[in-house]
Design a protein that fits this description.
Blueprint lengths: L10 H6 L2 H6 L2 H12 L5 H17 L6 H14 L1 H33 L14 E6 L2 E11 L5 E12 L11 E8 L1
Antiparallel strand pairs: 1-2, 2-3, 3-4
Helix pairs in contact: 3-4, 4-5, 4-6, 5-6
Length: 184
């Protein structure tokens, strides 16, 4: 969802932004809205913490809440309990950064297991496109070389949209929600 073309949002636009609209923004757009809300000159660490705070609240609160209200909660928490705020949101950010590899491994496993001859599959180490959508959700697109049921080599493209449940073993498929898996 694109609500602006790289330009800053007006205070009026920010006041109308809901959590639902915020979560539908592209990652760079969410970063820009958070940076604008806390001040463009804020240190990168502070922006990252507030971005994670917003992602945490957006995943757990009503989607009709206003972005500015929820950002106010993040700002208040950071001001009143700076050490606790930093520690908590740095930990969440670290956890989120580590999930990207696990999500890609899970998608590759799902793709491989969906093939007629999974033992013949050769999947590149990295995805051609990868996007972190927030809240433990990732989308990937790549290709796979594998043999069909007749043993003939083929090259297929795949798309995977997957989200971690937030608890349990990251290597257990039941702890992931598969929003979309397509092999073309």
């Amino acid at each position: 969802m694109q609500i602006f073309d790289g330009a800053s949002l007006s205070p009026q636009q920010i006041s109308q932004l809901t959590l639902k609209t915020y979560t539908e923004l592209k990652v760079d757009e969410r970063e820009a809205v958070v940076a604008q809300s806390i001040g463009e000159t804020a240190p990168a660490t502070r922006r990252d913490q507030h971005l994670v705070c917003m992602s945490d609240f957006a995943a757990n609160k009503g989607q009709d809440l206003k972005f500015s209200l929820v950002m106010g909660w993040c700002l208040d928490e950071a001001e009143r309990f700076p050490e606790k705020f930093s520690e908590h949101y740095d930990e969440l950010a670290d956890r989120a950064r580590k999930l990207d590899i696990d999500a890609l491994v899970m998608c590759k496993t799902l793709v491989k297991n969906s093939l007629q001859l999974p033992g013949s599959a050769e999947i590149p180490l990295s995805a051609e496109t990868a996007q972190h959508r927030g809240h433990g959700r990732y989308t990937f697109a790549s290709s796979v070389a594998a043999n069909n049921q007749f043993g003939q080599p083929q090259r297929l493209n795949w798309n995977c949209d997957i989200q971690f449940s937030g608890s349990g073993d990251v290597y257990a498929v039941e702890n992931w929600q598969i929003h979309h898996l397509e092999i073309l």
